[in-house]
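Thread: Newbie trying to understand structure tokens

Hi all, I'm a second-year student working on a class project, and my supervisor (Dr. K.) asked me to get a predicted structure for one chain before our next meeting. I've only ever worked with sequences, so writing a 3D structure as a token string is new to me. If someone could post the tokens and maybe explain what I'm looking at, I'd be very grateful. Here's the chain:
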Amino acid sequence: MTGASPQQTPDAIDALLGAGPRRAVPLPEPAERKRLRTEYGLTKAETAAALDVSAGTLTAWESGQREPQGEGRAAYARLLEGLAARLAPPPPGPSSAPVTAGAPADPVPATPAPAAAGEVVVELDRTATGELVVAEPQACVRCGRPTPYRAQGRPVHMGGWCTPAVSAPVQVSAPPQEAAPAQVAVPTGVPQAAAAAPSAPAAPRPRTAVRSRPAAPRKAPAKSVAAQSDWERAAAARFPAGPLAVLDVAADGRGLVAYLADGSPAATAPDARTAAAAVEWALEAGLGQGRLHRHGRDGDPLLVLTDTALAELGLPSAGRDEKQDFVPRLGQLPKNHKAVKALEKAGWLLTQRGLGPWARIYRTPEDGRRQCVQLCVPAWGALASGGWSVPDGLDAPGLARLLGTYATRVLTPRGSTAVSGLELVTSLRPPTRAVRTESGWTSGPVEGSRTHAFDAAPPEVPDVHPLAQERDGNGELVTEAWDWHRPLTPAESALPYAVGLDVNMAFLAAAGRLTLPLSEPVHELAPAFDKRIPGSWLADLSQVPVDPLLPNPFTPDGSCPTGPAWYSTAKLAYAAELGHPVQPAEGWLRHESGPYLDPWHKHLRQAYVDTMAALGIPLDLADTDPVAFLDAMAGLRTAGDPVELAVLSAVKQTAKGTIGKFRERPRGHGYRPGERWPALERPTWDPLMRALVIDTATVNLHRKLRKAAAEGRHAFAVLSDCAVFASPGPGALDVLTRPDGAVSGALRLGVSPGHVKHEGTRPMAEIAALLADGVNPARHIKTGGAVSADE
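---
Reply by user tm_fold:
Sure, no problem. This is what the structure looks like when written as tokens:
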């Protein structure tokens, strides 16, 4: 008996055929790419900015030296197709119409409107993450011109790029577990250029246009709705109430009121008497934050409970009774606490952190829907440390504005600023994405991300790491910020003041475009040094020529190395820059690398710049009026908005804390040296990344100090990113003004990360006394006395 052949599903076969050949998105020849851009009147700078790449990268694409990959290739292909469509002559006939200069850049609405009579509605094929499916270009069923896009497997241009030639709508079901994509409505018979395409450029501009004045430098503000891509608009539309709410008892004492991210009360007050009911309200109210990367995950809503709201919801205050109170020493309520039991009874679960200052409450996902809410309880110490600095007496609307501003500019808080910073790295560089295969959807890596955890090299790990047992006495890569000072010269002692200059966000500035490891280390003997390969190298840098009046850049204390030691790529590259022949004896190298922290750098830099602008100090103030900049910075702490100052402090601590998390040591009293700890299982745990950022910041500062020394100013003390100089006057300009009257470019004043600001001034007699006691004056230049500003 012959077994019956399995019945094949036509829909499944059609879906496989409709997906088209899985090949790279096609692009025109390099010369044609450049022709399209220049013919359209676009500059390299604005085109590169729209594609989120550097102008040098775009030049390489147009010259054929490099080919775009991944998402960048798809975006570039979309731009070039739009340029070609707009530059092509209109077809003959009554349907021809000129391109209108006022055509909108992106007319696709976040919520599709009903199609009017006579319209053709086209839904383009998308992946499970909402990305448009592209394939080998084929003739469009509407106009006959080639297109890589598909609708139910059929080649169709995006709306407005051709005149419809079909009389019936092409429809396709949405991918599983995703919202239906926006529909592009194209009126039948509308001329080709009358309907604008999603993200299609505006009409060509005259190439001979002359600007009457130089264009002001443009910063990168948050994207407007029109500039957002389809997935960004869809993500934002899912959370109309914003990222968080602060719950407080209403003024009349009856019920709760919720203050949203801007400090305003929510339209509907939460009708909640328990923590479980408050969590339900957060989900129903539309709290949350849209993903920061198309392959990332939306941010969970955050509820902040004031002291009075805590009591209203039946949660305990801090105390010593484990059965009744929250005990800070334990860090969470006991699992048998009545508040925990009440949540479990309502169907909610808690992570291993339990119900503590920062709690994550969730339900098992159903139908692919994530149900998770974060709690922040200031009364239990959530905002008392961890990089947060909440002004005394701040009311609930003010607290909502503080945390909401941080969430809008950085990320919804997830705990300490360091934890939030690490979450920001992963949100901007998600490790995996959905990939369609012949058998269905699976998980695949995201290009440029760290997809899994791997052990660091023995020289790089802290002494408690299991691999630390495999190295000898001097086999550790020692990377810390500078703590250095030297005796004053006679000329310096004769000057009346010591002036400190501090580098803004030095670690953040160092992380931009920095090449970082993406794979596990490989041990090599006598490797040829290559500054493009991140790694640890064993080399002798004791003979590198360095100005004796400046700190040595190759040791944390600024002294000269005494023999072979382990260094990061950043330090060896600088030794080669100083003219020293670099010959490593061995190395632990990473042969897969990339600018892993660049999105984090850009995002956090913009948050810092926006916060300074909100405090009244714009990005270009130091360039236009240095005195006004110094005066504004001097009055910042007394005249600035306390909420914005708290946000500024949190942004700074986020940058600093993130770098520290890359080498996080074990926490807790029960840890035994030599055991592994949970942080080692994170893809982001890599002490070499920390070393490369810190070493790059050190090298950047040493370059600035060398240039200042060439102009006659030698620093005599450095602490991390603060350098102290002898000065004839008490101001920063007294140090930065050259003999010819020009302001020095070695240490540039300004808000931007990497530029400097005035840190403090002390009388030289006081500084000389500190030096006589062996104390680093840079530690006390801000406040003076025996206690530093940090203490």
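A couple of things are worth pointing out once you decode it. The chain has a mean pLDDT of 82. DSSP finds 22 helices and 24 strands in the chain. Feel free to ask follow-ups in this thread.
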